């Protein structure tokens, strides 16, 4: 039986790791190690995974990623030592990760290969940048790669984009035909099917996550609109974003729609844009990943957003829901993503027109 190690760092990575492991549970023995975690104690996703009665994982481990500056080097050294010890009791034949730029992944692959242990690297779709690519800054990337080789070892590799390093042998993607060539070239490419995520076992995991956040399920079934807010860094790149957002939300609420808002998980404050004051029904907890919210939404719910992986995952995980990207055709940052969203089957609209009782995007 194959030993497979999953190294998720984000909620999307956790979901895909769980779905992949569950799908192949009869063929492999698996462990999941959550890396780069801001919280070690009382980590909600660790709690949900440990409470998951249908879990395919024989062990759940967590590694810190809370340090900054020079302290990060020390933190990573401690993580590496812990990982070496863990590899003595679980030696993987496959290592699956959402970003092969993660030092933890590259370190583990280096450790296994240095002992001549045959190991396969697996890239699990990380969303947006699998299809848009990662913008490359030549000088910055070269300096970053040089420093990492200096601090950690010559085994470090700076891939062109996530999933493109030589350490990846196989890629599991939601839409293989739309992925950037750097990921699919010379690799065994497989499709992540919606059915992976629609099993009773995965439904149970979503419920455990909601329970860990102390979120009741029923209100989510009544929302007419779930509005996604992008990463704070992306908001800064979009001129006039906040004003346009508030105007559109006010118009939708005035039409009688029940609107819930989901901020990006990286947002610390509960409601930094003060959207609940506009009449928003619910601010979904920012750390509660959208991937675990989608299964409990009603079939009438309309997903609205703009730039971000959430739009893609909504389309992939709940193909029965209407998903609309409301974009500004005059914003240079947003314009870059419009062709991609359209290729992925997401309707892109530039203006919002609302009549009493219904919202229509034109």
At the fold tier of CATH, the topology name of the largest domain is Rossmann fold
Strand order of the largest sheet: 3-2-1-4-5-6-7
**Topology as a string of helices (H) and strands (E):** EHEHEHEHEHHEHEHHEHHEEHEHEHHEEE
What composes the largest sheet?
Answer: 7 strands, parallel
CATH architecture of the largest domain: 3-Layer(aba) Sandwich
Report on this model:
The chain has 362 residues and is an alpha/beta fold. It folds into 2 domains: 2-197, Rossmann fold, CATH 3.40.50; 215-349, Rossmann fold, CATH 3.40.50. 37% of the residues lie in helices and 20% in strands. The protein is built from 15 helices and 15 strands. A 7-stranded parallel beta sheet has the order 3-2-1-4-5-6-7, with helices on both faces. Strands 10-9-8-11-12-13 form a 6-stranded parallel beta sheet, with helices on both faces. Strands 14-15 form a two-stranded antiparallel sheet. Helix 7 links the parallel strand 6 (170-173) and strand 7. Helix 2 crosses helix 8 and helix 3 (71-89) crosses helix 4 (103-114). The chain is globular and about 65 Å long. The relative contact order is 0.11. The model has no long low-confidence stretch (mean pLDDT 91).
């Amino acid at each position: 039986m194959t030993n497979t190690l999953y190294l998720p760092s984000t909620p999307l990575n956790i979901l895909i790791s769980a779905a992949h492991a569950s799908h192949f549970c009869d063929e492999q023995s698996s462990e999941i190690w959550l890396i780069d975690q801001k919280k070690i104690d009382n980590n909600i996703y660790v709690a949900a995974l440990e409470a998951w009665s249908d879990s395919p994982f024989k062990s759940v481990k967590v590694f810190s990623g809370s340090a900054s500056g020079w302290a990060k080097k020390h933190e990573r050294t401690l993580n590496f030592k812990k990982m070496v010890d863990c590899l003595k009791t679980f030696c993987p034949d496959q290592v699956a990760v959402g970003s092969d730029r993660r030092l933890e992944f590259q370190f583990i692959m280096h450790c296994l290969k240095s002992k001549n242990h045959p190991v396969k690297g697996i890239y699990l779709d990380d969303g947006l940048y699998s299809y848009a690519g990662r913008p490359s800054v030549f000088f910055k990337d070269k300096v970053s790669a040089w420093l990492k080789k200096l601090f950690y070892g010559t085994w470090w590799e700076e891939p062109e984009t996530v999933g493109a390093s030589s350490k990846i042998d196989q890629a599991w993607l939601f839409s293989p035909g739309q992925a950037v060539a750097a990921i699919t070239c010379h690799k065994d490419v497989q499709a992540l099917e919606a059915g992976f995520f629609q099993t009773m076992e995965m439904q149970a995991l979503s419920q455990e996550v909601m329970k860990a956040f102390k979120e009741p399920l029923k209100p989510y079934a009544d929302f007419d609109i779930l509005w996604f807010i992008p990463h704070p860094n992306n908001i800064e790149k979009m001129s006039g974003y906040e004003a346009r957002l508030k105007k559109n939300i006010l118009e939708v609420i005035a039409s009688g729609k029940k609107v819930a808002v989901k901020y990006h998980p990286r947002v610390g404050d509960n409601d930094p844009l003060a959207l609940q004051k506009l009449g928003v029904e619910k601010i979904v907890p920012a750390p509660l990943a959208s991937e675990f919210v989608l299964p409990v939404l009603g079939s009438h719910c309309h997903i609205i957003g703009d730039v971000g992986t959430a739009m893609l995952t909504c389309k992939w995980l709940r193909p029965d829901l209407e998903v609309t990207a409301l974009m500004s055709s005059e914003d240079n940052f947003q314009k870059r993503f419009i062709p991609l969203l359209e290729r992925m089957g997401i309707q892109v609209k530039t203006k919002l027109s609302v009549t009493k009782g219904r919202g229509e995007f034109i």
